[in-house]
Specification:
The chain is α+β, with helices and mostly antiparallel strands. The protein has ten helices and nine strands. It has two domains: 73 residues, Arc Repressor Mutant, subunit A, CATH 1.10.10; 167 residues, 2-Layer Sandwich (Beta-Lactamase), CATH 3.30.450. It is 49% helix and 20% strand. The N terminus and C terminus are likely disordered. InterPro entries: GAF-like_dom_sf, HTH_MetabolicPath_Reg, Tscrpt_reg_IclR_C, Tscrpt_reg_IclR_N, WH-like_DNA-bd_sf, WH_DNA-bd_sf.
């Protein structure tokens, strides 16, 4: 049984490294990749070198940074026909950015995380850069992940809160009781609010997008600076998010589940 365990561990490490590199479009040093994955620097370098031989990452020797490689592009192109649902959200993301002036996003749930798939800049000149394509957050941290988490079945919510240990990495504002309170608020209004819990001064709001069986699998969100998310403006932003989340759900063949979920 030892060999399968070692193989599974290797796959897990490779996955973590590829995700870390993918979150940094400007490239990632070996040391930074090791820090992001929790692996030692020698192990990280060996894995990156092996991945580069296969074309899964690319190394810029001039600045010592690693990038996603051409083989991943080819494989992604082949997988796109089955998994790419960004076309269903693109129009709504653009509308949200245009109507609000804020940065608008479309994110997908991947296990216990969300990953940003689309970003559209608004017209307001001061922006928040917490979120961009490829960035991942645990469910319950950013507004997109909070919106999704709030509409999962209660037993899934409790399992996530028990296992994710968000307080240790993200601070006391992500303690279980605080998260439960924000989940309750999200269920009450229909949309999630992140009051600068990731980066000081950077606010976010999100609404869940549902699949054909009524499960929250994606989210639309907005981010910007605190003065743009004053209490008197939030209901209007929330209304726009909910309207467009419903439109994207319909395009994906779903409708929002009934109240009391």
């Amino acid at each position: 049984m030892a060999e399968p365990v070692r193989g599974a561990q290797l796959v897990s490490r490779v996955g973590r490294i590829l995700k870390a590199v993918g979150e940094h479009p400007g490239g990632l040093s070996t040391a930074a990749a090791a820090h992001a994955t929790g692996l030692t620097r020698p192990t990280t370098h060996r894995l990156l070198t092996s991945l580069a031989i296969e074309g899964f990452v690319d190394h810029d020797s001039a600045n010592g940074r690693w990038f996603l490689g051409p083989e991943l592009y080819l494989l992604g192109s082949l997988a796109a026909d089955r998994y790419d649902i960004t076309d269903a959200a693109r129009e709504s993301v653009r509308l949200l950015a245009r109507e609000t002036g804020e940065s608008a996003f479309f994110s997908a749930r991947r296990g216990s995380e969300t990953v940003c798939l689309l970003r559209e800049e608004g017209s307001f000149p001061v922006r928040s850069f917490v979120l961009r394509e490829g960035v991942r957050f645990p469910l319950g941290v950013a507004s997109a992940g909070l919106a999704i988490l709030a509409y999962l079945p209660e037993e899934e919510v409790e399992r996530h809160l028990a296992s994710a240990a968000l307080e240790r990495q993200w601070g006391p504002q992500h303690a279980t009781d605080a998260l439960r309170a924000r989940i309750a608020e999200t269920r009450e209004t229909g949309y999630a609010v992140n009051p600068a819990l990731i980066l000081e001064g950077s606010w976010g709001m999100g609404a869940a997008v549902f699949d054909a069986v009524g499960r929250p699998q994606w989210a639309l969100s907005l981010t910007g600076i605190e003065p743009r998310f004053r209490p008197e403006r939030r209901p209007e932003l929330g209304r726009l998010l909910l309207e467009q989340a419903h439109e994207v759900s319909k395009r994906l063949g779903a409708g929002r589940p009934g109240a009391g979920r």
